[in-house]
């Protein structure tokens, strides 16, 4: 994983990061949320020949991954803005996976025509 807690802090500050009993940012929870967001993105990107786990692809989608991770950190206590940003990020990945949007990675690779149709990931 190349997306880190520091990326999260730069994007959103510390307010949304849960703390450990010692008052430090909870690294494990943030890592889990980032990995969950990467998995969501990867499910759609694989349909077009890209992987969210590729560092060069991540550079192109970092903020969208962080938007999903921010929601995943505490889905019961999010603002409307956080919900909207998560929905926008998820819609982007759905559109890429379906071939309605293109993603151009830093490598110069672009997404291929998508193979997913009418797929929705639901949080369990």
Which properties best describe this structure?
disordered C terminus; globular; 124 residues; 0% strand; mainly alpha
Describe this structure in words.
This protein is mainly α and 124 residues long. Helix content is 52%, strand content 0%. The protein starts with a helix and ends in a 26-residue tail after the last helix. The chain contains 4 helices and no strands.
Distance between the termini: 23 Å
Query: What coarse outline follows from CA principal-axis ratios?
Result: globular
Largest sheet: none
- Please tally the β strands and state the result: 0
Return Rg in Å.
15 Å
Q: What is the residue-mean pLDDT, rounded to a whole number? A: 84
DSSP helix fraction: 40-55%
The run of helices and strands is HHHH
Strand percentage lies at under 5%
Number of helices: 4
Weakly predicted, low-confidence segments: 114-124
Q: Helix/strand/pairing class, anyone?
A: mainly alpha
């Amino acid at each position: 994983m190349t997306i880190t807690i520091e990326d999260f802090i730069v994007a959103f500050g510390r307010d949304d990061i849960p703390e450990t009993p010692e008052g430090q940012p909870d690294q494990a929870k943030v890592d889990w949320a980032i990995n969950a967001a990467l998995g969501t993105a990867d499910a759609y990107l694989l349909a077009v020949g890209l992987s969210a786990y590729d560092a060069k692809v991540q550079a192109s989608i970092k903020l969208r991954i962080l938007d999903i991770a921010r929601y995943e950190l505490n889905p019961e206590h999010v603002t409307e803005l956080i919900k909207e940003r998560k929905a926008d990020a998820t819609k982007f990945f759905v559109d890429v996976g379906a071939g309605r949007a293109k993603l151009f990675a830093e490598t110069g690779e672009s997404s291929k025509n998508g193979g997913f149709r009418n797929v929705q990931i639901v949080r369990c």
